[in-house]
Amino acid sequence: PAAARVVSIASAFLICGALVGLGAVRWRRVLREQGLVLSWREVLRISLVAQFFNAFLLGTAGGDVVKAWYAARAAPHRRAEAAVSVFVDRVLGTLGLLMAALLLALANGALIGGYRRYQAVLLVIGAMFVAAVSLLVLGFYTKALGQEGVIARLLRRIPRGESAVRALAGCREFGREPSFLAQMGFWSLLIAGGVALAYVVLARGVGIVLEPRLLAFISLAVVC
Average of pLDDT values for 170-180? Predict the structure, then answer.
């Protein structure tokens, strides 16, 4: 029925709006771990501005750059740490999307097992998951990005390299609280589930007939 389609499309829009709010909650937690306390209003305002640029620029990199710029302006005393929080938040979000995609792959195991293209996609998702986890472990729990490491010495050779060194070294702060990564994993999985749900609900609204589990896997794989 036409009324049901309208409700589905409206619901998809509402879910997308809720996802921006959930993303703001996660990012505010990341900022707090760096000792930066911004108000809910400021965090949500910056998130909405970044979402605008995500929607109208090619890819999400433009929105992240704008978000980092606004964050640095909001915390002038710790600009490097504020900017790197955007990057860390992006990696955590990607990790949640990858975890959700892998879980959905298990739910679609019978179908994926019969198609090589799906298997290739699954291999790529698995490789990305390993890369994301390795990056977080490297930054959070080792001294590889520390101020005395090889990367720091290379960065100091470029203009304003000291700010980049300080920002990367600040990543160790995220590993000091044992529960931080688990908390961020929960929020990231919740957001990833919302992304998949938005696609499923929107598909119903525009009349696409496809198994919800499969559509959720495909949508998250593409987003990743």
Answer: 81
